[in-house]
Every structure is written in C-alpha cells, then in structure tokens.
Amino acid sequence: MLKIWAMSDIQALKTEITDEIEAATDLQKLEDVRVTVLGKKGRITALMKTLGKMDPEERKTKGQALNVLKDEIALLIKTQEAALKKQEMAERLATETMDISLPPREERKGRVHPISQTIEELVTIFASMGFKVAEGPDIEDDWHNFTALNFPPGHPAREMQDTFFLPEDEREEGERAKKLLRTHTSSVQIRHMQENQPPIKTICFGRTYRSDYDMTHTPMFHQMECLYIDKDVTMAHLKGCLTDFVRAFFGLDDLPVRFRPSFFPFVEPGAEVDIGYTKKADGSIKLGKAPEGEEQKWMEILGSGMVHPNVLKNCGIDPEEYQGFAFGTGIERLAMLKYGIPDLRTFFECDVRWLAHYGFDPLDRPNSATGQ
Ligand code: PHE
Questions:
Q1: Most buried pick, 260, 282, 340, 361, via CB within 10 A?
Q2: What whole-number percentage of the chain has pLDDT above 70?
Q3: Is 265 a pocket residue for ligand 1 (Cβ < 6 Å)?
Q4: Are residues 123 and 41 in the same domain?
C-alpha cells in the first residue's frame, strides 16, 4: 500500500487501471477489476484511507484528486460494461437460433378436490348467514368426544360409532387420558363453548374417524358441524337455517326438506333431516320435488337438534339463559349427491384421472375473484 504518495502517482494509477479495464474482455473480468480498484480493499479505497493522516491543506487537494479519479474510473467501468454487454448480445444473436415452429409445451393445471370445493361452497353459504369457522383437534379424549356430549359412561350410545381408541395418555387422568380419533366434529362444539361465551355462531370442518369400510363408508371422512347458541333460539331457527342451507347448497329453491324425530344424546329434541328426490328410469337419482304422479323419495343427509341442557352445563353455559341448535353432516355425502360421485372410497384413492373428471378448475372457485 502507498503510504505517502504524490499527485503524479494518481496519474500513473489512472493509466494502470484504464489499461486493466480495457483489457477486461468479459463481464466477470471487468467485475474483478472493479473489486481490486473500488472494492473494500481496492486500490483507490486504500488511498482514501491515507487522507485522514494528512494535514488539512494536503488532504483537500489530494482528496479532490482522488474523488475525480474515482468518478472517472467508475465511468470507464460503466462504459466498458455497456460495450461488453452489447458484444455479448451480438454474439448470442449470431450463434443462437430459435425454432419458432415448435409447438408450446402444454401447461398442466391442477384440479381442486371435490372435498375442498364443497367446503368452500359451505363456507360461502354460512359466512353469508354470519357464521365463523372454528377448529379442533383430530385426536380427542373420551370426555370431549363422548362424556361432555351427554353420552353417559358405559351407555350403549357410545357404540353408535365404531371408535378407534389410542393408547392411554399417562400424563392425564380418567376420561381425559383415554385418547381416541374423534368420531364426529361435535367435539369441536364442546371446545368452542368452553372457550367462548354466547352468542356463538360457528361452523367447523374436519376429518372424523370410524372403523367402517364399504361403498358408502370409509375409516376417515369429513364432517361439518354447525352451532348456534344465544338467548331465545328455537327449533324454528334450526328449521329455517337448515332449509335455507340445503336449498342454497343444492341450488334448488323448492327442494323438499323433511325433519324426522331422532336420537342423539347431545340434543333434545333431535331430528334427522331428509331431502326429497325421485328415481330416474336408469336408476339414477334426481334431487327435487316429485312431479305429479311420481313417487317422492327421501334420503337422510344430516343429524340435528336443540343442544341438550346437560351439554351447555358441561361447558359452563347456563341453560336457563341460553339455548341453541346444532347439526352435523358428512361433507363427502353432500359432494356425492351434488356432483353425482357414486363411490365414497374413490375420494381417497388419489387417482389423478378421477380428479381430472370430478375435480374443479382452480380459477373458477366459489370464493375466487373469477368465480360466481
Ligand atoms: N354428531 C352427529 C353424527 O356424527 C351429528 C349431529 C351433530 C347430530 C349435531 C345432532 C347435532 O352423526
């Protein structure tokens, strides 16, 4: 490094660097020169550092001279860089050819799974009625899945659902140590009511598990749960909300909806909900009101009811003050009916041909800007 330097050294340095810049025949070499001159440990930078030790007069003249040199070099580098880039482009244009007759490679667009599509449609419908989405864990304990929902211990109702039990959790006691894969999303109701005070207006989507396997049952499937708790909620609200929902979901304003008394430990009264359909000559199903002279058929699509006072109490809500309704339904079942998918098992086989057929265009989804 030059410790003491004269103005003439600057001229010599300029010539030296200019030669180096001109000799740089590609962009990498030019960059290397730039670093050795203007970089942190570059030659001009080193000279700059010596200014601090000079007396003020000398520092002024030499500092100015160095700044001029720096600017000149920076400009030279820029000019050389532009020239090199131009030259590189000219070489590429001369050597590279492009076959514009080649057909373009096909873009493969993914498809949205009918489960995801159906969940989005349901969210859209319930959001318009003011419901929020809640979540809960797939691995539950006996208390949240059964006891809090008014299934008495040892009661045969527990066998209504073929449960997958998991090894006991030694860190917990009693019913909370008994772990299982939730058999329904009703357990999310419990968690939500424990953490929130009414008014409560939520829906929940999630995987549920039961030991079963045939054309209409798989060990894992999806459910939707709806919960509405407030003062003065009645069965009329349940009927109105459910009727609006199924009609909106299936896009049929006059879809017949029927409520049949039924039993679930966590509701009182409880009802199963059926929708009307007719059978076409080829055996397929047509949802809707039967025309004159044709038989109106019914199929069950969900379970519902007024939340049992014991369930409210178990979650710290006063049943004298609050009431509400709940219902639960299978998402695959709704999708199968709406989109004519015959076999439940195919939902989980991950066959891309199935998805190409039954899946949805990702750019045309219910909540997307391009959808309805
Ligand atoms: N959890 C019930 C089932 O899985 C459905 C249900 C939910 C019924 C809420 C009534 C109220 O079958």
A1: 361
A2: 97
A3: no
A4: no
Q: Which atom of ligand 1 is nearest to the CA of 303?
A: 8
Please give the distance, rounded to the nearest whole angstrom, from the Cα atom of residue 328 to the centre of ligand 1: 4
User: Structural domain tally of the chain?
Assistant: 2
Pocket test of ligand 1: the residue of 264, 323, 325, 334 to mutate, having most ligand atoms within 8 Å of its CB, is: 264
Burial (Cβ within 10 Å: 0-12, 13-18, ≥19) of residue 353: exposed
Residue 222 lies in a domain: yes
- Cα 297 → chain centroid: 38
Question: Quick one: DSSP state of residue 141?
Answer: E
H or E element at residue 63:
helix 56-95
**pLDDT of 120 higher than 70:** yes
Tokens of 65: 């001279």
Contacts of 299 (CB under 8 A, 6+ apart): 274, 275, 277, 337
Please state which of the ranges 1-10, 67-76, 181-190 shows the lowest mean pLDDT.
Answer: 1-10
Cα 19 from Cα 14, distance rounded (Å) = 8
Burial of 318 (0-12, 13-18, 19+ CB in 10 A): exposed
Task: Select from 95, 125, 148 the last residue of a domain.
Answer: 95
308 band by pLDDT with thresholds 50, 70 and 90: very high
Q: How far is the CA of 255 from the centre of ligand 1 (A)?
A: 22
Please give the Cα distance from 123 to 125 (Å, whole number).
6
- Shared domain check, 299 and 162: yes
- Residue 372's pLDDT is 42
**For the CA of 325, the nearest atom of ligand 1:** 11
Q: Which CATH number fits the domain that encloses residue 345? A: 3.30.930.10
Whole-angstrom CA distances from 201 to 103, 259, 328, 350 are: 54, 22, 14, 34
Residue in the block written with tokens 């609006």: 244
In short, whether 304's Cβ falls inside 6 Å of ligand 1 is: yes
